[in-house]
């Protein structure tokens, strides 16, 4: 009798104000084994509700959003859904932005242009090292 539980895909939610950039990130992250894009939003309010509803494991957040701030969203996720891994992925990568994200509780911070490959490797590692759980039916 096999008692091992299947490992569900790493559920990723993207928060990015530019639709074309969101689509490109979704396509690239969607090729990572064990990763599944479960939703997208362009603003923090919509994202916060949808991340909870779609039971995301990871939120990939830009700092500039259609409304609200990515830093504020990261802080809200840290307070209300601490199990969600938060990844800041932005072109605003100066020291002040990094510090603000760290203070807000971001687990990871990547520059979209210079560190996108590192962000992909982080997603791969998160997918590989997940704890087993029963897949959603």
From TrEMBL:
Keywords: DNA-binding, Phosphoprotein
Keyword DNA-binding among UniProt keywords: yes
Superkingdom in the source lineage: Bacteria
4-aspartylphosphate PTM positions: 62
Protein's GO biological process: phosphorelay signal transduction system
InterPro entries the UniProt entry points to: Bact_response_regulator (IPR050595), CheY-like_superfamily (IPR011006), NreC/VraR/RcsB-like_REC (IPR058245), Sig_transdc_resp-reg_receiver (IPR001789)
Residues annotated as signal peptide: none
Pfam families xref list: Response_reg
SMART domains according to UniProt: REC
Molecular function terms from GO: DNA binding
Domain named Response regulatory: residues: 11-127
Protein name: DNA-binding transcriptional activator DevR/DosR
Record organism: Paraburkholderia solisilvae
Lineage, opening ranks: Bacteria, Pseudomonadati, Pseudomonadota, Betaproteobacteria, Burkholderiales
Gene name of the encoded protein: devR
């Amino acid at each position: 009798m096999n008692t091992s539980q299947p490992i569900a895909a790493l559920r990723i939610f993207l928060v990015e104000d530019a639709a074309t950039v969101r689509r490109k990130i979704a396509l690239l992250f969607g090729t990572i084994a064990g990763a599944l894009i479960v939703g997208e939003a362009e603003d923090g309010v919509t994202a916060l509700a949808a991340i909870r509803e779609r039971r995301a494991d990871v939120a990939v957040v830009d700092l500039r959003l259609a409304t609200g701030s990515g830093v504020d969203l990261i802080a809200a996720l840290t307070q209300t859904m601490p199990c969600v891994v938060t990844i800041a992925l932005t072109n605003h990568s100066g020291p002040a932005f990094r510090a603000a994200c760290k203070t807000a509780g971001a687990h990871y911070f990547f520059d979209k242009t210079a560190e996108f490959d590192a962000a992909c490797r982080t997603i791969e590692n998160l997918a590989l090292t997940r704890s087993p759980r029963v897949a959603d039916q």
